[in-house]
Amino acid sequence: MSKTVSEHTVPYVQVLDENGNVTDNELLPNLTDDQLRELMKRMVFTRILDQRAIKLTRQGRLGFYAPVSGQEASMIGSEFATEKEDFVVPGYRDLPQSLYHGYPLYKLFLYSRGHQEGGRVPEDVNVIMPQIIIGAQIVQTAGIALGFKLKGEKHVTITYTGDGGTSQGDFYEGMNFAGAYQAPAVFFVQNNQYAISVPREKQTAAETLAQKAIAAGIPGVQVDGMDILGVYAATKQAVDRARAGEGPTMIEAVTFRYGPHTMSGDDPTRYRTKETEATWEKRDPLVRFRSYLQAKGLWTDEEEQQFIEEAKDTINDALKQADAVEKMTIEGLIDAMFEEPTATLKRQRAEITGEGAN
Amino acid sequence: MAQMTMIQAITHALDLELARDEKVLVFGEDVGNNGGVFRATEGLQKKYGEERVFDTPLAESGIIGLANGLAIQGFRPVPEIQFFGFVFEAFDQIASQIARLRYRSGGRYYAPVTIRSPFGGGVRTPELHSDSLEGLFLQTPGVKVVIPSTPYDAKGLLLSAIRDNDPVIFLEHMRLYRSFRQEVPEEEYTIPLGQANVVREGKDVTIVTYGAMVGVSQKAADAWAKDKGLEAEVIDLRTISPIDIDTITESVKKTGRAIVVQEAQRSAGVGAEVIAQINEHAIYHLEAPVLRVTPPDTVYPFGMIEDEWLPTQHSVVAALNKVMSL
Ligand SMILES: Cc1ncc(C[n+]2csc(CCOP(=O)(O)OP(=O)(O)O)c2C)c(N)n1
């Protein structure tokens, strides 16, 4: 005898099509004109920041950097659905979300340069330093979210990883824990088609990444990740559910990164074609949303130009601020290991500074 | 003979073994079409096909667990951990599974697995890419740990590692990948695992070291000779597990003094083990305590202060001077 014990679906969310026309009026988020313009401004800033960061990295003025162009809608739209008290737990590429959640830009530059100060987030900002170990942030998110629940605070934790990240055991463990405890978490996967060089089809035989949520017993949603209103709508729904005590959600945003994987020698021509790139560029999140706003009379090219100039100034100021921060020291590193240096570390510190005997 | 960088010597060794033994399989994140993030597996997928050289999903525990299973099936897997800091994700599969397979199965199964991984500092990678974690595996019974310091050694040691019927962790220092070229014969040759190499002869002090610190120690010894007229003998361990104590003992008997230079943090690592073994085997030949040149016991620092944290030629010379004055 065989019978079906359980059936599941993965909904697909899109609000704006490639030309900026509304495809789903019901999902159209209830945002003010100012908020809509703010979303666009943030995407423009992010694009400019990305271009600048790439140049700065080439000049040796930044250290580690993972380009984000193409992913603006996913990054900006999802973070916009959170509140200041909510927690953002980023991966190495998720600097824009961290920035708009309150991580100071100059500290992100320090992070890139490998300065300890880059990880010291201001006290009132619920963000932690971007995670390098793929998957580690997913399990931690279950804990941060559970913490909110245990403390009786109605806040949500959102975390980010890529398509490759969904292959790690930690990815499943994090979702499963959050599901088991009904912790207020949102697992946001940016499926930008490649984990360095490995395409999504070689990463998993699963038809969608969103369906991985089903095994953990939590809802999974796929969203057009180049459509900022779709991303916002899907994330807002997940955040609202979590805040209302209805448990975690996983979102797969289908998107693309235009640049190389990171600025450390990756060459995308080895693993993707010009045609693939052109297909995705047609879906550009900025172009699409610009058309939508312009049709509503909410955006002009002159304004955009002005925002670009402002963005450049903001970036330059942050760089200056980063340059002005005192260099890290080995003593500072030793002191950062424990609340009080151990006897061994004290001896090692003295050896380095030349104070006292061996 | 050809002039090769270390990375070329490694690709060449993998090529030879893939050709020689069809049970050899090469896999890991980005090792196929991309040829590895450092291009160590460049061209191998084209030559040997996707069944023998393949990309894996992004999951280190999965990669090593897969290697374990393939070994049980009679294959000789050569998995890559993209950067050694990510080995923590696979630590269970290495330490509690692969390393114990022979023991647990009473010898019925064994794991001829060679885990290759780039490691080592001074190249400004992000967090956890550069860490010297070899000491952890020194404390893991059932695995051998190899760290070549030259292109010639890399080839000969890698061939031995792949042909070894037990698990070998083969660590490739990122700073050595392309830092210099050396004559490397095209034909097969092996360098036995567990055999150190005296790379500089001297009668006054023995320097025991490995990896990128071999070059640093040689330069320090040269500078010291010029400055002080004293000769340091430099021993490149090449294999840090097992440690070739015979070569060390012989040298210490001659010099009466020793220092150990390592890139890893000080406590409980390779240096500590070398000193313990010198105590066991050569203490009566010592005229001074054995000193260590290492970074302090902190995490590997963020990029900005790597150079200050890592041992330098200068710190090696300082230790040489000190051990002479004791
Ligand atoms: C545990 C671990 N394994 C491997 C890596 C090396 N690595 C960094 S990024 C990356 C690919 C990630 O792809 P994906 O999750 O799709 O995110 P994307 O970079 O595309 O945003 C790999 C393999 C790492 N940082 N951590």
UniProtKB/TrEMBL annotation, chain A:
Task: Tell me which cofactor or cofactors this protein depends on.
Answer: thiamine diphosphate
- Supply the EC number(s): 1.2.4.1
Q: What does this protein do?
A: The pyruvate dehydrogenase complex catalyzes the overall conversion of pyruvate to acetyl-CoA and CO(2). It contains multiple copies of three enzymatic components: pyruvate dehydrogenase (E1), dihydrolipoamide acetyltransferase (E2) and lipoamide dehydrogenase (E3).
The record's Pfam families line, in alphabetical order, gives: E1_dh
Instruction: List keywords of the entry alphabetically.
Output: Oxidoreductase, Pyruvate, Thiamine pyrophosphate
Catalytic reaction list: N(6)-[(R)-lipoyl]-L-lysyl-[protein] + pyruvate + H(+) = N(6)-[(R)-S(8)-acetyldihydrolipoyl]-L-lysyl-[protein] + CO2
Name-wise, this protein is Pyruvate dehydrogenase E1 component subunit alpha
The protein's gene is named pdhA
Annotated Dehydrogenase E1 component domain residues: 40-329
Could you tell me which species this protein originates from? Answer: Alicyclobacillus acidoterrestris (strain ATCC 49025 / DSM 3922 / CIP 106132 / NCIMB 13137 / GD3B)
Kindly list the GO molecular function terms attached to this UniProt entry: pyruvate dehydrogenase (acetyl-transferring) activity
What general EC class does the enzyme of this chain belong to? oxidoreductase
Question: Which BP terms from GO are recorded?
Answer: branched-chain amino acid catabolic process
Assembly and interactions? Heterodimer of an alpha and a beta chain.
From TrEMBL, chain B:
Pfam families, per database record:
Transket_pyr (PF02779), Transketolase_C (PF02780)
Name the needed cofactors.
Answer: thiamine diphosphate
Q: Where is the Transketolase-like pyrimidine-binding domain?
A: 4-179
One term of GO molecular function: oxidoreductase activity
Cite the SUPFAM superfamilies for this sequence.
Thiamin diphosphate-binding fold (THDP-binding), TK C-terminal domain-like
Where does the secretion signal sit in this chain? none
Going by the UniProt record, its keywords in alphabetical order are: Oxidoreductase, Thiamine pyrophosphate
Supply the name of the protein: Alpha-ketoacid dehydrogenase subunit beta
- Which species? Alicyclobacillus acidoterrestris (strain ATCC 49025 / DSM 3922 / CIP 106132 / NCIMB 13137 / GD3B)
